[in-house]
Amino acid sequence: MDKDSRPRTPREKYGEELRIRRVAAHMTQEALSERVVCSPTLISHFEAGRRLPKPDDAQRIDQALGADGFFVRWLEDLESKYTDHFAAVAELEQQATLIQYFALTLVPGVLQTDDYAGALFRAYRPNYTAEELDEFVVIRTKRRRILDGPMRPVAWTLLDEAALRRPVGGPQVMAEQLHRIADMTEAGRLRLHVLPYNVGAHALQQSLLTLMSFEDAAPVAYVEGFVTGNLMDDPALVSACQTAYALALSDALSQQESLALVRAAEEHAHGQH
């Protein structure tokens, strides 16, 4: 599918400008890669918006294309605090009119409290410093702002019951996290459904999934695993993800029942103090 059928991210615009200027300079990707001292594949990644050049690479690109520092200056505005596989997703979240999250074992990042996010980072990052941990938490939790603005997207969250039961960060942290989800639901900022244990197998049991829809562009789907993620815009793949979400949603509790389950889990967490 043509990228122009969905909103282009700033990274993709950067890559398109690089491609236009390279072609105008009558240079192949191989020729440019020799000047930048990298592989032609990496140039291809730059032009597709999948990767951003490092500052030294951007400087050599400017020199090779006679761009007078253009790509170095633009790069300063594009450098993302997110990992490569998630950076484009974070940009698209800002443009979406509807976001549908599914989480299997963890509360989605956009809904996480600071303490919950901190507990997750402590669990899988060895030899961290307090300063690094604080930076990770700030980067993750600032995504919550997309649900606060006047143009905020409609947000659906489908949670496996497992995400409610594992006491991440201990009872107090988990109770506060569940309280936040329930409060957002009651305030109308979130459409909440829970897939209870007694459903058994369901259509999304194998993966985290995020679906995003846009006002004037085709939808996308994103699945994520450990240190990797896949942003999909192929119509067939996105349709398959939408179908799986719909199937799982059909097995979920109603919003009222889901809210009651979250409140009960919150009280249970409080009772573990």
Task: Provide a concise account of the structure shown.
This protein has 273 residues and is an alpha/beta fold.
Please outline the helices and strands.
Layout: H1 10-24, H2 29-36, H3 40-48, H4 55-65, H5 70-78, H6 84-93, E1 98-103, H7 114-124, H8 130-141, E2 154-160, H9 162-165, H10 171-186, E3 191-195, E4 208-213, E5 220-225, E6 228-232, H11 235-251, H12 255-271
Parallel strand pairs: 1-2, 2-3
Antiparallel strand pairs: 1-4, 4-5, 5-6
Helix pairs in contact: 1-3, 1-5, 2-3, 4-5, 7-8, 10-12
State the main characteristics.
single chain; 273 residues; alpha/beta; 434 Repressor (Amino-terminal Domain); Endonuclease, Chain A; 2 domains; 6-stranded mixed beta sheet; 12 helices; 13% strand; elongated
Structural overview:
This protein is of the alpha/beta class. Strands 3-2-1-4-5-6 form a six-stranded mixed β-sheet, sandwiched between helices. The relative contact order is 0.12. The longest helix has 17 residues. Strand 5 and strand 6 form a beta hairpin. The protein has two domains: 76 residues, 434 Repressor (Amino-terminal Domain) (Orthogonal Bundle); 188 residues, Endonuclease, Chain A. It is elongated and about 65 Å long. Helix 7 crosses helix 8. The model has no long low-confidence stretch (mean pLDDT 90). Helices cover 51% and strands 13% of the residues.
